[in-house]
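In this supplementary section we document a worked example of the pipeline. Step one takes a protein sequence of length 668 as its only input; no multiple sequence alignment statistics are reported here. Step two produces a three-dimensional model, which step three serialises into structure tokens for compact storage. The input and output of this example are shown verbatim.
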Amino acid sequence: MDNKKTEQLKEYTIKNESNHGLTTNQGLKMAEDEFSLKAGLRGPTLMEDFHFREKMTHFDHERIPERIVHARGVGAHGFFQLYESLEEFTRADFLTDPSKITPVFVRFSTVQGSRGSNDTVRDVRGFATKFYTDEGNYDLVGNNIPVFFIQDAIKFPDFVHAVKPEPNTDIPQGATAHDTFWDFVGQNPETAHMVMWAMSDRAIPRSLRMMEGFGVHSFRLVNAAGRAHFVKFHWKPVLGVHSMVWDEAQQIAGKNPDFHREDLYEAIDKGQYPEWELGLQLIPEEEEHRFDFDILDPTKLWPEEEVPVRRVGKMTLNQNVSNFFAETEQIAFHPGHVVPGIDFSNDPLLQGRLFSYTDTQLSRLGGPNFHQIPINRPVCPFHNNQRDGMHQMTIHEGQTSYHKNGLNANQPAPVPAEQGGYAHYQERVDGRKIRGRSDSFLDFYSQAKLFYNSLAPYEQEHVRMALRFELGKCKSSMVKTNAVALLNQIDRSLAQEVADHIGAPLPAENLEVKSDKKSPALSMANTVLLPDTKKVAIVRVGDPDVELFAEWTTALTEQKVNYTIVGPKLHDLPNPLKVTATYETTDPTLFDAVLLASSEPVIPPTALAFIETTFKHYKPVALALGNPQALDAVRIKADEAGVYDLNNSNIQAFINGVAQGRFWERNL
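The serialised model returned by step three reads:
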């Protein structure tokens, strides 16, 4: 670049490293940048908060056309059906009529990475569902983790700027193991609970079909009589909640960066339709303050032992998209898309999202008519006086386009609530206009401790390993010191181990939460264990017994286990011996278990690598060997946990091991 051009660019350079007071884009100095303006500390966010609106508007328009967050996604169509009427709690039609089948579209996504990032990175997963109800579209826009990093939406641009690739280098992609993310964590202790979830196995799901979904926020259900309950929404996967181990996730990122997408598409193509049950946690409005946490705080969950989850219906995904861009990329979600009987709480993060999402769609989808894109159109008719605008796809006829009018008999006219019109819940709100945080939001560590206490020992070990890795990648001593100080507020021994590994000081004073309280529902060790849709690699060496192969493959198929026969080269042989994948085209990390069948005295290294990698990742291994000494060169023995000698046991024992999934008791 020549000097003239360099000098020209300097005129447009702002050095944020210099000391400057924080201002709006109009130059107005601001006294507060952590809290949006509310009507009382626990009241709703006010529209007059120009600073919040400017900050959020600029953030929403930062990227075109890719989503700023949740850019990498995959979607599918399906349907939802209720088990029994919920008219006691809500007037929403799709939640009161068990005979009704409601179409849905679900988009799963990662948060941090771009559209070109990997599927299996350590990250929060988005879980957004659009219900095409007869009363209009309802969007349940959540994640696979029930809490979030921040309490107030005004911090959302700051959080995303911190977690995204660092702006000076655009590194790293699809990862939180860097200084700016952990600097944000250290400076904002409200992140403590979510950080523990993000460092757990929940952030590396085995499959999108095997992860929970959460609405995150407290919403309201309102019945026909006007009675309200606070509600949290859950999606409970029928297949249970299962995850990868970190080494496995990293290897898959290199072997198949589209692993989760492909897994979803293949399951639906095979008719192995993913299913989730919709669960509700309900709190009567008069019991809002009876808990030792604030139910409006989005960094808090409602422990299932205190507020049970009521399973009320099932969602099934049974159709893949026909065009990724037209459907998955152009679908527009918004937590403000509600139907009668569903309303909002004063959760300050939710209040900000109610502004942000439409603003984002205006930028991404080219104007105010994004609701007319086919994937976004409701299944019920829609009529209003909105006209024109970019990408208008409807020809409106008639003379009037305003309310009230006499020339068209005041059509379209508002619909009274008793005839199905939406009426906001009439909550009483009193309070001074204020920027601040309710004292009831100030407990940052108790539920972080609850989550860590609730994990099985191997899950706790994975959290410790994740923290050592993530903070070990940070370069700033200050960032690492602050992160250890935050961990010291949660668990002293955890902070000690991480500090020892990353070369950071441990605070002199032990500030950990003194609690042994647990919530068994938070541990994946207590999940459903099924063999259904799991994937087994049958590694064929030589010419094994055809009848045995037929017996194995029949048993696997009958119990809904998918299998692939792997060998050194493809063979166009009749089933059940047909090799459909080679050592070059697949990898042991892409399977849930391996069956090694060999008629040879020596097993080649490529085949040994399959079982060694599978064993290392705690997965089940089955062996059918013509030569019992063939595995003397490796440390896998037939009496190890999760290792099945098919010469001495039947295939069912192995299938039971496939259902169990991992054998953590192995001393690796």
